[in-house]
Design goal:
The protein is α+β, with helices and mostly antiparallel strands and 818 residues long. The protein has 22 helices and 27 strands. The longest helix is centred in the first third of the chain and has 21 residues.
Length: 818
């Protein structure tokens, strides 16, 4: 039960089985912070200008208040057609509203067609209305709610003339062009007249005959769908479909090829319609090819553009602006959850006045779960003043009180609201919104954070019988195991309280464990050898008094009472490490006498410095550092340093290849190396790096011949040897002896012995003689994979120095510490 009590302290964070890493905190790098400050400064300047009561703004405001006082002029539309995509029945009611019944589909789209009898329509109002037959009285079908994911409209002017054509043709002007089409649909009276019709094209290649563009398959993936046409690379390729006779063509939909980023091959294509005499009756140019598909209206119709949207209410995160953002994504739409069973309205402002002609409104509900409007009414206006829905608090009091007399100038809230929507301030508002979009577009680094749940959302923690979540028991209160003392007085029962308890002077375990780990990093083994286990299954400390003393010193606040003022370190890790490495114990020689070996074979009495091999990451980093290749960059994503070829292909049945990093990423510290538990980085695994399948505090070292093969032959170490050889030649002096002394001093950090110098000079001379007779081998050894030798360098000499550098990097004194 104590386990679950302790778990309850950590069971109150927001990260609860989310598909992402929320909650996160957006952080910015230095350059992005500079731009952020710059944008905020510009916004502040524009907002000062926006706040000015210019004569033009005040006149516009008075006129708007006067028009509002007279009442808004809205004309309820009379639909000529009410239809739905999935079969929902739309019935016209006596008040001009429309009631949707028999909503069976989880996603539904309504179409409302009407005729505008005169010009000048500037906006559309959508009212979402309650009704007794709807769940919770509506206005939607999903428990009273709805999500309008997209509101759009198309317009056909009265003067539009129908296009009568027999042939639809796509031409691709230019030399050495290839034409590929997934599908071409020619719509006549709502039917695809091109389906299975006769087709031809300028040429055929890559198994792409012309009939594939009228087979009914719109999938543009060339290899997967095998339903895409393909011409040869030629001058002005073309494709066409013969409809058999003249038909009225309302629109043509062109589906493009979608694989391998080849969609832009269709850039600049011409869509042409020809009559029976092959006279051109329509043409347009696709300046930029569609990513998947694009529909071209031949009957003069066009999509209407809504430039603004406002509503009297919106559900959190479901703003009405999302209904005209061009996205039908599930969470991109307008909803009214929280205020169900009452009327709501939204107003959509057009980019320009339209009419007379025919308009078809499209109300798309793609959220699912039958989140469709239940009762709604559409109206249009020809008003030229800003079309915005007033917030309910302003709207309800608009006609009341003296604040709105004198042209509304007495109402500060009303004037400030209007300032953001007036035509006289449009330029300033556009500048501010543009800057805000730039701020939103700045790329931040989302850093996951542990955020505590609000008090009203706290979870209850249950005891799980036999550890099964299917068998919850009684509720438990948060707390710590009784064996670990009392909860600090005044500390909150949350994660912050856990911190207070962990670092309380009454809890010595934290400092003891921390000190033991740092000791192990420096000496190879902790005072308690089982670093991962301080319990009954772990070993006893070799020097208990020393461990206690170091723990008290480390955990005592500076100026506190548990240690002298000079020795209290206040949890300062750097001070602790400095204290240990400057001690006489750490600075002992690693040489061992026969007497010490017999008495203390495992060095538990600290009779000498514990000589040991470097960890896997350190072996690689040291080779890169000595050669001058090690990159100093800090942070960032994992990298893919060189490794032997073919390992990933073998592990993943040839479906994946290892993407070796380029540039300085090849030489990042081992800390940043990408790690796959199925295919660990081989050289580090050979040097005892853990698999990371379980948490590992102690690495158990091994000595195997494979480790020598790695440092002699692995691409990383060969490249390091090449770079070290060039560094020795550049920086080591003019003669062989000086260069050998430089190389030895560089990797050993001490003055080399004469015997070491003579051995390496002999090695250099013999290897240089060997490679002078093998020029190609010399070139390869000195330059692959590092790159070509500098101008004027002798390949044989460079190869010989590469061999010497390889030996230097493999010295026991280089691979070992102490």
């Amino acid at each position: 039960q104590e386990y679950y009590r302790f778990y309850a302290l950590f069971n109150q964070t927001e990260d609860n089985d989310q598909p992402d890493e929320r909650p996160t905190l957006p952080l910015y790098d230095a350059e992005t912070k500079r731009r952020l400050q710059e944008f905020h400064g510009e916004i502040a300047k524009w907002e000062v200008r926006l706040a000015q009561d210019t004569p033009g703004f005040l006149d516009e405001f008075r006129n708007w208040v006067a028009s509002r006082a007279q009442g808004e002029q809205w004309e309820t539309i009379e639909p000529s057609a009410l239809t739905s995509e999935k079969g929902t029945v739309l019935a016209r009611l006596s008040d001009g509203s429309n009631l949707a019944t028999n909503v069976a589909a989880t996603r539904e789209t309504y179409f409302v067609k009407t005729r505008l009898t005169s010009a000048g329509v500037t906006g559309v109002r959508l009212e979402a209305l309650p009704h007794d037959e709807l769940p919770e009285k509506g206005p939607g079908h999903a428990g009273g709610n709805f999500v309008l994911n997209e509101f759009s409209a198309s317009f056909t002017p009265d003067e539009a003339k129908p296009v009568i054509a027999r042939t639809v043709r796509i031409e691709l002007p230019g030399a050495n062009r290839m034409l590929s089409l997934a599908e071409v649909q020619v719509w006549s009276q709502g039917t695809n007249a091109a389906l299975k019709a006769a087709t031809k094209q300028s040429s055929t290649d890559y198994a792409g005959p012309p009939e594939l563009a009228v087979d009914g398959n719109t999938d543009g993936h060339y290899d997967r769908a095998k339903s895409t046409t393909h011409t040869r690379a030629e001058k002005d390729p073309w494709w066409e479909v013969d409809l058999g006779r003249n038909v009225t063509v309302e629109k043509v939909t062109v589906w493009n090829r979608t694989d391998n980023n080849l969609a832009n091959r269709l850039d600049g294509a011409r869509l042409v319609a020809l009559d029976e005499r092959r006279a051109e009756v329509f043409s347009t140019v696709m300046t930029r090819a569609p990513a998947t598909q694009e529909t071209f209206a031949l009957d003069g119709s066009r999509a209407l553009k809504f430039v603004a949207a406002s509503a009297d209410y919106h559900q959190s995160e479901y703003h009405v602006e999302k209904a005209i953002d061009g996205s039908s994504a599930q969470k991109s739409g307008w909803a009214v959850g929280g205020e169900l069973g009452r009327p709501h309205q939204a107003v959509f402002e057009l980019s320009g006045a339209v009419g007379p002609g025919t308009v078809t409104f499209k109300l798309e509900h793609s959220f699912g779960d039958r989140q469709a409007l239940g009762r709604f009414r559409l109206a249009v206006t020809r008003d030229q003043t800003p079309l915005r829905v007033l917030p309910r608090t302003l709207a309800e009091s608009f006609a009341d009180g003296p604040a709105y007399r004198n042209g509304g100038l007495g109402s500060v809230p009303l004037k400030e609201w209007f300032r953001k929507h007036a035509k006289s301030t449009a330029e300033v508002n556009e500048e501010i919104q543009g800057l805000k979009k730039k701020i939103a577009g700045l790329k931040s680094i989302p850093v996951p954070v542990m955020r505590e749940l609000a008090s009203e959302k706290k979870r209850s923690t249950r005891f799980l019988n036999k550890g099964s979540f299917l068998s919850p028991g009684e509720t438990v209160e948060a707390g710590i195991p009784a064996a670990f003392g009392a909860w600090p007085e005044g500390a909150p029962l949350n994660r912050l309280g856990v911190v207070d308890w962990l670092f309380s002077p009454d809890n010595p375990l934290t400092a003891r464990v921390a000190v033991n780990r740092y000791w192990a990093q420096l000496f190879g083994a902790g005072l308690v050898e089982t670093e991962e286990d301080f319990g009954t299954q772990g070993q006893l400390p070799s020097h208990p008094e020393l461990l206690d003393w170091l723990a008290v010193m480390f955990g005592s606040p500076r100026g506190g009472s548990n240690a002298s003022a000079d020795l209290a370190l206040g949890w300062d890790m750097k001070a602790l490490l400095k204290f240990i490495v400057t001690s006489a114990t750490y600075q002992q020689s690693s040489q061992i006498s026969a007497e010490a070996l017999a008495r203390d074979p495992k060095n538990r009495l600290l009779s000498r410095y514990p000589r040991r091999r470097l960890d896997a990451e350190m072996v690689r980093d040291q080779a890169l550092a000595a050669s001058g290749l090690l990159a100093s960059k800090v942070g960032g994503p994992s990298v893919f340093p060189p490794q032997p070829d073919g390992l990933w292909k073998a592990a993943f049945n040839g479906e994946r290849t290892y993407p070796t990093s380029q540039g300085t990423d090849r030489y990042r510290r081992g800390l940043y190396t990408v790690w796959r538990r199925t295919v660990p980085y081989p050289s580090m695994a050979t040097f005892d790096a853990p698999s990371r399948e379980t948490c590992t505090l102690r690495r158990l070292p091994t000595n195997t011949p494979l480790q020598a093969f790695v440092t002699l032959n692995d691409p990383v170490y060969v490249e390091s040897a090449q770079a070290l050889a060039r560094r020795i030649v550049r920086e080591g002096g003019k003669d062989t002896g000086a260069r050998v002394r430089f190389g030895l001093s560089l990797v050993l950090s001490r003055v080399p012995t004469n015997e070491q110098e003579r051995a390496l000079v002999r090695l250099f001379e013999s290897e240089r003689a060997h490679y002078r007779e093998r020029a190609e081998d010399a070139r390869r050894l000195a330059s692959e994979p590092l790159g070509a030798l500098p101008d004027g360098w002798d390949p044989a000499e460079a190869a010989a120095w590469t061999v010497v550098a390889n030996v230097l990097l493999n010295l026991d004194g280089v691979l070992s510490k102490g």
